[in-house]
Amino acid sequence: MSDRRGPRAVREVPEAFQSPHAAAAFSLITFGLAFATPAIRSIIGWPGLIGALVVLVVLGIGILIARRDAIEWHGLLPISILIFIGWCGLSAFWTEYQWVTASSVLYQAAFAFLGITIVLTRDLIQIVRSVGTVLRFLLVVSFGVEILSGLILDVPFRFLGVDGALALGGPIQGIFGTRNMLGFVALIAIVTFVIEWRTRSITRGLFIFSAILGGAALLFSGSPVTWLVVTVLLFATLALYGLRKAKPDVRLRLQWALLGLTVVGAVATYFARVRVINLLNVGSEFEYRYSLWIQMWQLIPVHPLEGWGWAGFWRTGIPPFANIDFALSQGHSTGLNAFLDVYLQVGLVGLLAFVALIGLAFVRSWLLASNRRVVTYTWPALVLVVVIATSAAESFALLDAGWLLLVVCAANASQGQSWRRRLRSKDALVPQPPLE
């Protein structure tokens, strides 16, 4: 009897990994882990988070092996992702904290692998639905924690960073650690909920509930950084809507006009930055960020090309982060600017690789969203708008959920706009010589 059950059990294992339900569950758990990392680190610490991440990587490997014959690999993985992660890994050879760099690169590569696995095993609409389901659940949990802390018990939950300020109108942070992170999640959630509704993936009632949930999270977060991103997102949404409605023969001219308008707007905003900050009443936050960035700029010239070495999250006990913390007398885990953070850690070469990664991902996603009629293609483009705009005041694009979203959007855009795929298509059209 045992001899018969053994081979059958062996056959059932790959069949389970091949199941669409396994891929769906893997996607949900991965996005849930990425967005909930602040709460997970607060409750079970880094060992628990790393253990969960390792389990997901092993499951991802099993899913890819089981589905290897059905997966289209050609032209999927953007080379820009490999170059950026590879350069971060190479920084271990010249940094003073090799063990930090090695562990941080592995942490970064693990999330990148999970993102690639999701893109390989799930369609774009399925990815959107997974993100929507996860963010609905996490936002409900966040408001539940805030209600329990601020209204029912009237006690702050220090281990989660929850101050219980909901009764005062905020700011709140839910289970996401900071109000800026809650605002970032709320914006991603609102974009996702709208796409779900437009594709009829959810009912009208569920969409209304989701929209109210995301809007309330955005409002109560009280994040001035997020409101700046909202402005950029609204502009991008209107521009994308106009491009999708335009005729194909005028769309290219509109793209160039939009690019010129964006450059002019960015330059004007830079020169009027003091007035913009005063209008948005974000002076105190900007002053702190400005002081931090000045300290970073002073340390960048020490290693301008190669950087100090990749660390991801800052370790306050090692240079250069210890010097910055000492100068500001305040602890923090990132540089509050993804581009400066990369510049400090992996130098000019790493910054160029990161800009190329983000630039290629955005251009490809934007072109797909402009030219494809299916509304689902607008999700990666708008998500990248939020990620890139937020990266000017936070380092979300380098870590956890922000990094996972960047990889997912980059890989998805590569599927539709990869130059390697086009080369392969041309090769397929070339007549093959007859066999002798």
UniProtKB/TrEMBL annotation:
<keyword id="KW-0436">Ligase</keyword>
<feature type="transmembrane region" description="Helical">
    <location>
        <begin position="374"/>
        <end position="390"/>
    </location>
</feature>
<feature type="transmembrane region" description="Helical">
    <location>
        <begin position="133"/>
        <end position="152"/>
    </location>
</feature>
<feature type="transmembrane region" description="Helical">
    <location>
        <begin position="342"/>
        <end position="362"/>
    </location>
</feature>
<protein>
    <submittedName>
        <fullName>O-antigen ligase</fullName>
    </submittedName>
</protein>
<feature type="transmembrane region" description="Helical">
    <location>
        <begin position="172"/>
        <end position="195"/>
    </location>
</feature>
<feature type="transmembrane region" description="Helical">
    <location>
        <begin position="100"/>
        <end position="121"/>
    </location>
</feature>
<feature type="transmembrane region" description="Helical">
    <location>
        <begin position="255"/>
        <end position="272"/>
    </location>
</feature>
<feature type="transmembrane region" description="Helical">
    <location>
        <begin position="226"/>
        <end position="243"/>
    </location>
</feature>
<keyword id="KW-0812">Transmembrane</keyword>
<feature type="transmembrane region" description="Helical">
    <location>
        <begin position="21"/>
        <end position="40"/>
    </location>
</feature>
<dbReference type="GO" id="GO:0016874">
    <property type="term" value="F:ligase activity"/>
</dbReference>
<feature type="domain" description="O-antigen ligase-related">
    <location>
        <begin position="210"/>
        <end position="355"/>
    </location>
</feature>
<keyword id="KW-0472">Membrane</keyword>
<feature type="transmembrane region" description="Helical">
    <location>
        <begin position="202"/>
        <end position="220"/>
    </location>
</feature>
<keyword id="KW-1133">Transmembrane helix</keyword>
<dbReference type="InterPro" id="IPR007016">
    <property type="entry name" value="O-antigen_ligase-rel_domated"/>
</dbReference>
<feature type="transmembrane region" description="Helical">
    <location>
        <begin position="73"/>
        <end position="94"/>
    </location>
</feature>
<dbReference type="GO" id="GO:0016020">
    <property type="term" value="C:membrane"/>
</dbReference>
<dbReference type="Pfam" id="PF04932">
    <property type="entry name" value="Wzy_C"/>
</dbReference>
<dbReference type="InterPro" id="IPR051533">
    <property type="entry name" value="WaaL-like"/>
</dbReference>
<feature type="transmembrane region" description="Helical">
    <location>
        <begin position="46"/>
        <end position="66"/>
    </location>
</feature>
